[in-house]
Amino acid sequence: MALSNEQQLLFEKLALYCDSYIQLIPISFVLGFYVTLVVTRWWNQYESLPWPDRLMSQVSGFVEGKDEQGRLLRRTLIRYAILGQVLILRSVSTAVFKRFPTLLHLVRAGRQYLEWAGPQGRSGPEAWPETRSDGS
């Protein structure tokens, strides 16, 4: 898309105006702000990823039962949390996406089973603990 003569003239004036102030504010100073902004954004996104560690310690503390049923329930809830983590990381990490491009790859790796489904048509791992806590 080409600029009209008037737009070209305005762009040249803007470039000359910016060039006159380039000596006042060094480009490395401006670049430092930009890099700080990008790294801060990335770090905030990284920190907002849910990690299953805290959930796992809470599950092991609050889900009672030293019998087989309690052990299986704790293990199942933790598996759901790990599967949820893998599904989240698939959307942000190319390495994880290459390892698990489809849900069938998760099934083949033993991370998910085809018959898993949640209540009322919700089928994500965030919905599955609801069915497990009801005793089903």
Automatic annotation (TrEMBL):
The chain crosses the membrane at residues 21-43. GO terms for molecular function: chloride channel activity. Its main location: membrane. It is a multi-pass membrane protein. It comes from the Eukaryota. It catalyses: chloride(in) = chloride(out). GO terms for cellular component: chloride channel complex; plasma membrane. It is found in: Cell membrane; Membrane. Keywords: Cell membrane, Chloride, Chloride channel, Ion channel, Ion transport, Membrane, Transmembrane, Transmembrane helix, Transport. Belongs to the anion channel-forming bestrophin (TC 1.A.46) family. Calcium-sensitive chloride channel subfamily. Forms calcium-sensitive chloride channels. Permeable to bicarbonate. This is Bestrophin. It comes from Peromyscus maniculatus bairdii.
